Amino acid sequence: MSIKNSWSPDLYAEAWMFATKKHEGQTYGGAAQGERIPYINHLASVAAEVTWALQHTKKHCNADLAIACALLHDTIEDTQTTHEEIETVFGKAVADGVLALTKSDAIADKSEKMVDSLKRILEQPDEIAMVKMADRIVNLYHPPFYWNNEKREAYQEEAMVIHEALQQADEVIAARLQERITRYERFWKE
Question: Model pTM greater than 0.90?
């Protein structure tokens, strides 16, 4: 019996271990001053959002592709990992998905970098757009304590651009992203 959007726990464990080793020692700023969160927390949260969406979407998805890319989405961008290394371990589809989720260092302008990233994501299967939306959902949980309102508003506006570009990939995760964008204003500092 086949279950819609089922996924392999073995692949999950392999991708989790790979990402854990690659991001070892990396942290990010939390909601409270001085707080540092292990980076693996971000990856687990993105994978959780993708897994939730896979359980609620009406469409058939390649769940293994989506979950592996969720766990690995920052390995090329934030570590010394290469596309070739990911392809050797996880296959071409996963490596290409992770590469599409990686912002290009060849582009200096931040908005142009985002346009390029979204264009490359749209050339991939819808599962990759689901990962990008999940990534932004997680990043909208709360801003780092050191961001001012200008940075928070710019981040919210960028989330709207992501939503507009990728929403057709999956209505369930797009709706969750829209809800997080709307709720983000509760973080404005007075």
Answer: yes
